Amino acid sequence: MIRRILGKLASAVAVLWGAATVSFLTLHLVPGDPANVLLGGAAATSTGLREQVIAEYGFDDPVLVQYLRYLGRLLTGDLGESYQQQLPVATVIGEQLGPTLELTASATVVAVLVATLTATLTAGRRRPGVRGLTSGLELFALSLPAFWLGTLLLAVFSFRLGLFPVAGDIGVSALVLPTLTLALPIAGILAQTMRDGMDAALAQPFAVTARARGLGELAVRARHALRHALLPAITLSGWFVGNLFGGAVMVESVFARPGLGRVTLDAINGKDIPVVTGVVLLSAVAFVVISALSDLLYRIIDPRLRTA
Amino acid sequence: MTSGPASKLLAGPPLPADPVLLDVDGLDVRFGRGRREVHAVRGISLRVRRGECLAIVGESGSGKTATARALVGLAGPGARVTAARLDLDGQDLRRLGERQWRRTRGRRIGFVFQDALVSLDPLRRVGDEVAEPLLVHRRVTPRAAPGRVRELLAEVGVPDPDLRARQHPHQLSGGLRQRALIASAMAADPDLLIADEPTTALDVTIQAQVLDLLHAMRHRGMALLLISHDLAVVARLADRIAVMRDGEIVESGPTAEVLGAARHAYTRSLIAAVPARTPPPPRPPATGTPILTCAALVKGYAAPGGERIDAVQDVGLALRPGETLGVVGESGAGKSTLARLILGLAEPDAGEVRFAGRPWSGLPEPARRPRRRDLGVIHQDPLSSFDPRFTVERVIGEALGAIGTPARRRRPATVDLLEQVGLGAEHLGCRPLRLSGGQRQRVAIARALATRPRVLLCDEPVSALDVSVQARVLDLLTELRDRLGLAMLFITHDLAVVRQVCDRVLVMKDGRVVESGPVGTVFEAPAQPYTKALLAAIPRW
Amino acid sequence: GGAAAPSGSGDGPPRNGGSLVFAITSGTSCLNPQASPNSTTTATIGRAIVDSLVAQDADGKLHPWLARKWEVVDGGRGYLFSLRDDVKFHDGTPFDAAAVKANFDHIVRPETKSQYAASLFGGAYTGTEVVDQHTAKVTFSRPFAPFLQAASTANLGIQSPKALAEFGDKLCAGGEYTVGTGPFRAERHIKNQSVDLVRNPDYAWGPDLEGRRGPAHVDRLTFRFLPEETVRVGALTSGQAQVAVLPVTSVGRVSGNPDYEYHQRRQPGESDSLFLNTSRAPFDDEGVRTAFIRAVDLDPIIKGVYFGVYERAWSPLSPATLGYDPTLEGSWKHDPAESDRLLDAAGWTGRDAAGYRTKDGRRLTVEWPYLDQSAQANSVGEAIQADVKKVGIELVRRSIDTGTYWDLLHNGRYDIWQIGYVRAEPDVLSGFFLSTSLPKAGGQNAARVSDQQVDAWLREGAASTDEAARVKAYQQVQRWAVEKSVVLPLAVTATTVGASRSVRGLVFDADGRPVLTGVWLAR
Amino acid sequence: MSAAARLGRGFGWLLLAVLLLAAVAPGLFTDLPATEPDLSSALRPPDAAHWFGTDELGRDVYSRVVHGAGYSLLVGGGAVLLAIAGATVIGLLAAFGGGPVDRAVVGGLDLLLALPGLLLSLLVITVTGAGTVNVLLAVALGSLPGFARVIRAQALVVRRSEYVEAARCLGVRRGAILWRHVVPNTLAPLLVLGTTGVGTCVVAGAALSFLGLGPQAPAPEWGTMVSDGRHLLDQAWWVAVFPGLAISLTVILVTVLGRDLERTFGAPAG
Ligand SMILES: Nc1ncnc2c1ncn2[C@@H]1O[C@H](COP(=O)(O)OP(=O)(O)OP(=O)(O)O)[C@@H](O)[C@H]1O
Ligand SMILES: Nc1ncnc2c1ncn2[C@@H]1O[C@H](COP(=O)(O)OP(=O)(O)OP(=O)(O)O)[C@@H](O)[C@H]1O
Ligand SMILES: [Mg+2]
Ligand SMILES: [Mg+2]
């Protein structure tokens, strides 16, 4: 057990180190002089400023020295300072983490609920009507790029019908449309995966056995098949995190919500490499945490994976 | 034909006066539609009385499972079931609505499905699975359920039922799982218990225990519908036997009658397929220098928990030209690991394999490659030993290519080989998936022979086959051995098979050789209790 | 456009209280007006928090503000400001000459990394002298007339010296770190979301201009950053914001709706223009430049793409700026035939398979790199691209990133550069056409012109205190730029603001930016 | 399969064929220019002359959607092909390179998987700049790790399969085993993976375009069209809605047909 945990930790550290290195490399591959990026148009208004910035950030040191210094700073938890905002990256990201977490958490809940419901209600059903309709809807949902779905939802429910506020992160009602935008495409894929899992489980001998005991259809689904359907769904967790993040970038942009997505886009557009690096590291951490959690969940659901 | 002593002991007393419990007439089951329609069951009639045991036997795909499932209304999606009569205790099952079916299943008909190993929900505790029919049919209150579950598990002979109820299916052995399933099927005290192949997945020793258990159940007045492809298995239990083939019942009657004086040719072929009823005369012991020797082989694997499993411990053997050596032992005994060591697919941790008088284990693969042609292998599961994209011609052609047969001479050589194993040129273009099990195994044998080996290693070559097909393949192997003078190493868990084909036998348990010697000696006078148990479990009548 | 009477005045006395939400385009990366680039967002928010020495009215006239009066001394090389003595910063620090010195010195210090404010000193600032507690003298190395207007901007607004010293590198974060003397006190800034301001009840030193005297009427003023155009308009129409900067696409809907009041002010300064790089081929040839410009049928483009909201520009200088040369209007026509003739004359006589002109086997290609743009700016670009294609010029538009942007700009590796620049002062032209204002030196001379005559005019305009002389000098520059075809003026941009009916007292400053001191909410 | 399902499937393939045809020869479907502005007919609603209306520069939206098919399918298909090609090399290398190589490759893949696809794509664009080819590269890199993992897992399965062992026992050489058995059996499931991947990649490409990182104007790329047109949703819904529908339709088509392929060819050993 301890060895397993240590192994996991080691690979987590390796992933983080890799992420840090990737971001550092990106920094050095980016065309253009970082001093220009930092100074904007003021690059040369006063001589000396440029040199000062270069010295301050160590742009003139050998790459290896810069890399080691960068790693060293990371080890002490220092993510550096945003070029654009001249604030510590930790502050910049920290300020925006809240809204993104709120959005992704609510989207996760909605997506999982919707997927579970549709999967449970439609799995194994042969009636082409219901099943065709739901899988059609699912297909449609997953075919909608987040930016497009969001724009449509806004146009209809906010501008036309005025049911929800157009923007901002104030109150629950402002969260409804962004959540749906983020959740629906994910729910589409999740529902399909879960239904496939459920179909597979329902075809298993144990499901037939359960029916042969006199169990009703719903009971077979809820007590037996659902857990099995969850397993492949959990396998999607990595994909899920990636999609949540990618979706959040879009949703935050379309709904003009504050959050990490906006920060990332701004940073990428503005070549604010320290912030980009911070985001990369954060998402790597999120991935590591989520995969540890899904691992745990897997073990909770599937006793076969627990060591005897 | 004489009934063995075991069957005298076990067969229940015929109770002709008992009323008919299950009355089926003209049962028809079809799957699919149009050109793809499968007519699985074709108008069969069955009758089971209270307390009686009826066995349905027949080869794989004959429609046994389809029949059984139709009886509980679970023939499956896409199945169309019709019947002239389908009565349980006077009630017409054809008219049942979904709710009434639910009240019938589990409560009136208990069902133990084929595939005991996967018929318990792997994600739930064994106790919950056993309790399910109790709770669904409100036989006990939820509070009282655990107590009743424990009683049930104890009744079916599960030791330490408290612990087992709290465990998950994967923590139970196959035999225990099958017992738990039976306990669950019996929990709500049904009138009829349907057991579909209750022993196929099990080791011989455990198989005997489960059959004993089912026999004991019958004494509680429960009627039993037993389904199997193995005549020897049902002979011990059934009052009456119905023989199915291609969806029809070709013969039925009291057990002794069917076994003793089978009228239908198919029944007779089934009976003939039961091995080891008449052991072949012992052949003179082989002499000469062993072509294959293993000395003090040890192989361990790292188990998930961090400990090591010694799959093979201190195993030694010698195989001489023209000799057949059997290796037996139950699942996990280390037989396949031994085979892999001999094949050079795994390297021993200690010990040595010598082949044709020269070292074999521990060599780099390129050094072994030219000598591999002398060591043929037949795998347990022929299908997975073929590249799914290859035709029969390519499968065998590859083997021929490996010994340098030029491309243009491969086709006639392939046809030659196919003919040797009883197949023809018409099979050249087939993909393995489209061949029957017996044909696949023949292709596998043809491939093994393609390199003209001196030693043939067979790892469970017949365990995946139907009894009747199994008999034909065994005949083929012995015939080839005699004709080509091959040395054979025959790995199996089936002692009856060993008895039929081997000269000497090696009994393995937990990676060690517990007993070895000429077949006759070991079978007639086993020295070890483990061997005795194995022998006692061989089904026979 | 131009200066109109403040709207909504005259129906009863202003009511105090309530809070106002202003939906504004985007939070810039730096909210400190002294360090940020020239941005409407910073200027608008900054104006509500910090006061300046002088105030410029909508007509461009200068009025006393924190400076009671001023005097130009040393032949235009010095400005002597007599300061008010009754002013306090939001943090309680009294306002005095030392504060002025602290601010101006702070702005030009390299560590401040000022991207705009420092340039308002024209590189000529030599220092500020504290003559006495309430008299400050700002001195320059040469006569520098544009300074007074510069001193009226929020960028040179006076912030608390205590805050400047204390917060140092946090100033860009805006919010509570920006401490001024203005009608509102900054409370907090939530990045990418909003800036909250609260009323400064002590404010009694606003300039004597309509709607700017103070104190403010609303208790709370919130700027919401909504870069997504539809969302911003939605915020206004759904009542989540009372005032919103409108995208041109929505002007029609709001201006025609009686529930809203629509305000439009032309922005002064440098019109949205394309500068043609005269320092490299093919635009080093005046004929090719003229051919390019004549090939563009600008009227329908500007009218179509901007929905008739922005006027078509004729001069690099906006009509809302002192010194605009109205004679340039209609001075040239769309004339593809003339373009063809000029290009033939310039030797671009070949044609390649794609229909583009060639000379010596080289295609007539011009490159227009741009940083990410609005959809309209893109459309204008695409339309121009299609127009010049008709005369055989290939226009390659390339979206680039910030790093590349500065690289290309500094090194002159482009043919066309698009800039617009808001400032109510004709001297902006110096930034664009002075030979020393090359981008690398911090200027905007993207056409890379170097003409002694032009330099002379511009120097005269900057040095002279005589308005007529200045106007003449700057008009000559404009005419020259159009005649020499170094610039293709596109559109006179405008501030377009929609406000709900209840909003009263909204006025605009010389830059066409909303001033919120006098705003109040009717019931 | 029911008659209706067969019909639907036939129709689906037909539509995809039409889409592909539009991608390679848009001229067959429209003779209106896709990039030529005609300001006199800006923002016309859909009518007989302009089936999908016109945009703010008076360009025919239908023609732009037709011409845009090429970009979307190029990005979607190209990215998938590129990703699969890269993933195959990497996956096989890992599966056959042995312990250290495998660990290194798997570590690298884990790292890439740890970064959301969009973030990876954005990083690529940061380095390479915007543009069609760069979007293609970015999207390909974004989906490569997923593919590579599948391929490696499949290659491992194949490598350990009994038929590979059988070939070894026959004395077939390593190279021959790799080429004859492993590669074909590893790549078979990719057909399905690839088709469904096209849909994902089309969306990913459109998303990048939406963020302003796509093909350069005036290329009629669907994502860019939605992005630009959404500001006009009030006045001229058709400018954004039709390209949006085109994206959805394409994704649905390739997804459905990919699943169809899966049913037909998937898991042949089953
Ligand atoms: N759901 C199904 N759809 C189509 N065909 C089926 C289905 N279930 C069974 N069959 C076919 O019906 C026939 C009878 O199958 P069944 O399972 O009853 O055989 P069985 O006698 O139980 O064989 P085994 O000994 O292998 O269990 C077979 O040909 C089988 O392929
Ligand atoms: N690759 C492996 N890694 C870890 N453990 C293994 C491995 N192969 C076999 N074992 C273990 O070694 C033991 C012997 O396995 P082996 O396959 O040799 O048994 P067997 O006698 O062939 O059984 P069966 O009759 O079920 O085929 C088992 O406990 C098995 O779990
Ligand atoms: Mg069966
Ligand atoms: Mg084995």
Automatic annotation (TrEMBL), chain A:
**Is Protein biosynthesis set as a keyword in this record?**
no
Q: How does it sit in the membrane?
A: Multi-pass membrane protein
Please state what the protein is called.
ABC transporter permease
Organism in which the protein naturally occurs:
Phytohabitans kaempferiae
Determine if Ribonucleoprotein is one of this entry's keywords. no
Q: Which CDD domains match?
A: TM_PBP2
In terms of one coarse class, where is the protein primarily found?
Answer: membrane
Under InterPro entries, the record lists:
BPD_transp_1_N, MetI-like, MetI-like_sf
Q: Which residues form the ABC transmembrane type-1 domain?
A: 97-298
A Pfam family name for this chain? Answer: BPD_transp_1_N
Family from the record: Belongs to the binding-protein-dependent transport system permease family.
What residue ranges are annotated as transmembrane? 12-30, 103-124, 136-158, 170-191, 230-255, 275-298
Tell me which UniProt keywords the record has, alphabetically. Answer: Cell membrane, Membrane, Transmembrane, Transmembrane helix, Transport
Its annotated compartments are: Cell membrane
TrEMBL record, chain B:
Keywords attached to this entry: ATP-binding, Nucleotide-binding, Transport
Q: Which GO terms describe its molecular function?
A: ATP binding
Highest taxon of source: Bacteria
Taking every annotated instance into account, which residue ranges of this chain make up the domain ABC transporter?
Answer: 24-271, 292-535
Q: Describe the family membership recorded for this protein in Swiss-Prot or TrEMBL.
A: Belongs to the ABC transporter superfamily.
Q: Which NCBIfam families match?
A: PRK10419.1 (NF007739), PRK11308.1 (NF008453)
Task: Kindly provide the name given to this protein in its UniProt entry.
Answer: Dipeptide ABC transporter ATP-binding protein
TrEMBL record, chain D:
**Membrane topology term:** Multi-pass membrane protein
Mind listing the UniProt keywords for this protein, alphabetically? Answer: Cell membrane, Membrane, Transmembrane, Transmembrane helix, Transport
Keyword Transmembrane helix attributed: yes
Q: Which InterPro entries match?
A: BP-dependent_transpt_permease (IPR050366), MetI-like (IPR000515), MetI-like_sf (IPR035906)
Please give the Pfam families that the UniProt record associates with this protein. BPD_transp_1
What family classification does the UniProt entry report for this protein?
A: Belongs to the binding-protein-dependent transport system permease family.
Name by which UniProt lists this protein? ABC transporter permease
Which source organism does the UniProt entry give?
Answer: Phytohabitans kaempferiae
Taxonomy, top ranks, is: Bacteria, Bacillati, Actinomycetota, Actinomycetes, Micromonosporales
